[in-house]
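This entry is retained here.
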Amino acid sequence: MSEQQSEGSPQHIAIIMDGNGRWAKQRGQARALGHRAGVKATRAVVESCAQRGVKCLTLFAFSSENWNRPADEVSSLMSLFLEVLGREVDILHKNDIRVRFIGERSQLSERLQKKLIKAEEKTAGNQRMQLVLAVAYGGRWDIVQATRQVAADVASGQLNADAVDEAQLSQYLSLNDVIPPDLLVRTGGEQRISNFLLWDLAYTELYFTKALWPDFDDAELQSAIDFYGDRERRFGRTGDQLEEVPDE
């Protein structure tokens, strides 16, 4: 597959994949079938992002709050994760895509935890694109676990408390080794970030679409990227300041 990355296109895209259940309900189907349809959309979006030269794609697969869903749906999702990992990791590896997982792994079954580790180890050397799957993840959890690690390092004398600033704390977060998302996409019509990457999304452009996740296709992705291309990213500065920056 050839890669095409136009000037000003996002290097890191994060997506809240919302709407699987509603998609199934509209068709008189069980929610589990909606999640399976969502897997097909996920596969297509990963391929589309890789073709566009996106360097990192972070997907909100299962939030820390999703544990509150009906037990049968949670069980179905966990089984689906295992099935998808067994089927898709080899394909991702062949396409030079690195797979990573962020979230509170201790909440997952031992079998699933082992699958995550194997997938990460197998694809660790791949460089075309990094695919990050947030599983049992919450933005508040991420900040809390980072704070705990900082406190532990200060207590052990490895870190000076006075040296802790934003840059230092960010090194303890789950996405410490990649640039923050340039673009967040949320499908399903809701306009909130739902405890996803709270620290990392500080200056991310937010794109909301009514398309349900199983219906999110290449054209929808392009609309999101076009939206991003029209944005003026100021990072706290004024538009006049940006115009004063000389061209390189």
